[in-house]
Design goal:
By secondary structure, the protein is α+β, with helices and mostly antiparallel strands. Helix content is about 40%, strand content about 25%. Strands 1, 2, 3, 4, 5, 6, 7 and 12 form an eight-stranded mixed beta sheet that branches. A four-stranded antiparallel beta sheet has the order 9-10-8-11. The structure holds adenosine-5'-diphosphate (ADP), (3R)-3-hydroxy-3-methyl-5-(phosphonooxy)pentanoic acid (PMV) and magnesium ion. The site of magnesium ion has 5 residues, from α2.
Amino acid sequence: MITCSAPGKVYLFGEHAVVYGESAICCAVELRTKVHVEKSESIIIESTLGTTGIDHETHPYVSYAIEKMQQLANIEGVRIRIESELPVGSGLGSSAAVTVATIKALDILYECGLSLEDIAGKAHEIERMVQGNASPTDTYVSTMGGVVMIPQRKKLPLIECPIVIGNTNRFSSTKELVGNVAKLRSEFPEIIEPILSDIGQMSLLAEKLVHENDYETIGKLMNVNQGLLDAIGVGSAELSTLVYAARNNGAISAKITGAGGGGCMVALAGKDSTSAIANAIEDAGGEAIITKNTEEGVRLESLNG
Ligand SMILES: Nc1ncnc2c1ncn2[C@@H]1O[C@H](COP(=O)(O)OP(=O)(O)O)[C@@H](O)[C@H]1O
Ligand SMILES: C[C@@](O)(CCOP(=O)(O)O)CC(=O)O
Ligand SMILES: [Mg+2]
């Protein structure tokens, strides 16, 4: 049995705007999805969402990953078991992590010899198929790890301050939120396109600030980015409550991460403020997760279980 894992991510800048080619900065975080694969009589996919065969309703990402790998290998029967530390439909890139880890595990089991670039590319095609429109960000960062600038595919230094995530525990579908933004953009292109472009400009400004470890200025810009995410309609009362709970308790910055609607916000923690921020998020009704960014992308965990 082969086990591979891939990380989730948080966006410092640029979700949604990156779908339209603007720049984004995204960090892999130490929360991973593990995928175990072994040859079997038929195709079986097991996760907290259920046990199915190829099933584009219950397991769209994993089903498309199997079908994509069937173009390279003779995959007749395989059992795939998924375990994840990432809340599903939460803005932490659970869809990318499960897709990337599945492709890598099947790549090893069937000796396909894919490169990391191949894995990221195939996983991006799958996110596009399921979401309708998807940037390469989540799949790239989950494959490569680290702090990544997209679409430049440039690695930046790791962020040296603690990251606190606040989960509203409200499921949100990336496909739906990306669709809502597309609709708003086509209704008001002259208003929405400049907002998306401003978000991209913030990522470009922040690139230099990440190199300089200037988290105070990065934080100011992240808070502006939060305002613009609200402007394009991906905020919610629960997310705003957690954002202000974090900011009022020592966070340098706090904003939505990922698709929004529900799901998670992310805060950069100021000096010694990590537990105060986490407590404030919990008191405000959210679930706090203290984490760090990581250079580790997709990896083989074990060749025997
Ligand atoms: N542990 C998992 N097992 C099976 N499928 C998963 C798992 N995690 C995520 N997925 C798939 O990803 C979808 C959520 O992806 P998405 O809407 O992009 O949200 P996010 O990537 O922000 O968590 C789920 O509906 C499911 O299809
Ligand atoms: C909204 C978006 O920018 C990020 C979505 O991230 P997540 O699936 O919510 O983790 C979409 C994309 O980049 O494909
Ligand atoms: Mg996703």
